[in-house]
Structure formats: C-alpha cells, structure tokens
Amino acid sequence: MSKPEHEFFPVTGVAFTVCPGDDPKITERILASDPETGVATRILRYEPGADSSPMGVQEHDFWEEVYILEGSFTDLTLGETFSAGMYACRPPGMPHGPWRTDQGVVTFEVRYPA
C-alpha cells in the first residue's frame, strides 16, 4: 500500500488529533499516510507550554523531514532552539528531542521509508 492520492484540498478540513503519548498540547493533522508503513505527511502542533519529555528521545525507522512554519521549540538534549523558517532532514535512527516550547510551534513534516 502507499499514501492515498489527493488533489488540492483545504487542510483546515482535517482535524487535529492528539499524538501518540496522549499529551493534549501535542497534536497532529495527518494529511496523508500509509497505515502499513507508518509513513505520513502531517502538520504537527505544540501548544504553548507543551513538553514531550515524558516520551523521551525519539528515533524512527523512516526518513523524516521537518520544516518549522510558526513559532519555535527547544531540543532539550541538544539545548538548542529552532524557529520558523528552519528545516531538518533526519535519517532513520537519528536521535532527536525531547522538545519543549514556550510560545508554541507548528511544523510541516514528511516521513518516508528508508
């Protein structure tokens, strides 16, 4: 299976849902996904004050590209803050996070198989 085909549509019609980890301040809007592989295109939102520390450092078995649309967040392991206009490309197995934000952040992410 693969991601479904979509022609242009208003993404505001796709609801935000709470991400795995069950923190109501960390939500995602899944635009397209492949349930068999777990790869997805999504908008991720951390509300002000969100902290993913309970989920620990993240590592994935897929590629992940992230572009920050609004706000900023801090990678607590690196002690670095990343803000709107910045981009990351993470290969499978690259550790990142946990994250915290004071002002909130919105990212656009694409995940695909290794």
UniProtKB/TrEMBL annotation:
Residues 25-108 form the ChrR-like cupin domain. SUPFAM superfamilies: RmlC-like cupins. Gene3D superfamilies: Jelly Rolls. It holds the Pfam family Cupin_7. Signal peptide: none annotated. InterPro entries: ChrR-like_cupin_dom, RmlC-like_jellyroll, RmlC_Cupin_sf. This is Cupin domain-containing protein. It comes from Amycolatopsis samaneae.
